[in-house]
Amino acid sequence: MDLGLTGRKAIVCAASKGLGRACAEALAAEGVDLVINARGADALEATAETIAAAHGVSVTPVACDVTTEAGRNAVLAACPDPDILVNNAGGPPPGDFRDWERDDWIKAVDANMLTPILLIKAVVDGMMDRRFGRIVNITSAAVKAPIPILGLSNGARAGLTGFVAGLARETVRRNVTINGLLPGPFDTDRLRSTAAARAEKEGRPVEEVLREMGETNPAGRVGSPDEFGRTCAYLCSVHAGFVTGQNLLMDGGAYPGTL
Questions:
Q1: For residues 90 and 14, is the Cβ–Cβ distance under 8 A?
Q2: Mapping DSSP to helix (H, G, I), strand (E, B) and coil, where does residue 164 land?
Q3: Taking a C-beta distance cutoff of 8 angstroms, is the pair 229, 17 a contact?
Q4: pTM (2 decimals)?
Q5: Are strands 176-183 and 133-138 parallel, antiparallel or unpaired?
Q6: 65 C-beta neighbours (distance < 10 Å), count
């Protein structure tokens, strides 16, 4: 299927590795020119070179902290009129809410709620004027089924989801959609580091823990970043203009509800 994205421009945040990189690669495969962001310059530049060489598109790396005003300005200066925005940020650490102070909450809300909202604010009017825009917020399956030890993430990402639910109904008339992608367990560095910590604690091999993670999922495996990226690309396509304000759960069926 031709997604109708050749020549479009996209900003993809936290794209040096993991699910952000998978989204960037899938968009590049459809002919989208990219501005990609991450904090680590070396990994980001290597990713940019690899994607550009593989797909023949322009890939501009902007190494910065996008949760800061200076970081956002740098990304937007590199791509002031994007057709696509993929918001993405690593989640805050787990823990017990009794141990979190106000600064912990502010940091989580800044990264996982306010930064996406401020980037949307910066680009959405231009998208509506041009009558094409696709915004995808990578959040978490915990938005649908909260995980107690991830309270900081649950709260901040739920706030973003609630905000977008209203805005998405205001922009779609001008062909600008806003949707959430909610990942469950995917084979990323973060999942592997989680498995390594659990393996060390339990005195087991890492591969055994990883295999168990897959076997306990209804799909019998963890997700592939490639399939996540391709789903993101579809939501950004010309074929998804009637899909907005939705939260697509990609968890292999782990969530047991019907809605």
A1: yes
A2: helix
A3: no
A4: 0.95
A5: parallel
A6: 14
Q: pLDDT: is 249 or 149 the higher one? A: 249
- Phi, psi of 101, rounded to the nearest 5 degrees: -100, 175
Tell me the pLDDT tens digit for each residue of 8-66.
Answer: 999 999 999 999 999 999 999 999 999 999 999 999 999 999 999 999 999 999 999 99
Cα separation, 131 vs 129, in Å, equals: 5
Total Cβ atoms within 10 A of residue 101: 7
The neighbouring-strand residues paired with 249 are 182
CA-based Rg of the chain, rounded to a whole angstrom?
A: 18
d(CA 99, CA 243): 40
DSSP 253: T
Longest Cα–Cα distance of the chain, Å, equals 57
Q: Are 23 and 232 in contact (CB under 8 A)?
A: yes
3-state class (DSSP) for residue 106: helix
Rounded CA gap, 20 and 241, in Å? Answer: 22
Q: What is the pLDDT of residue 16?
A: 97
97 contacts 146 by C-beta, under 8 angstroms: no
As given in the structure block, the two tokens for residue 102 are 């106000």
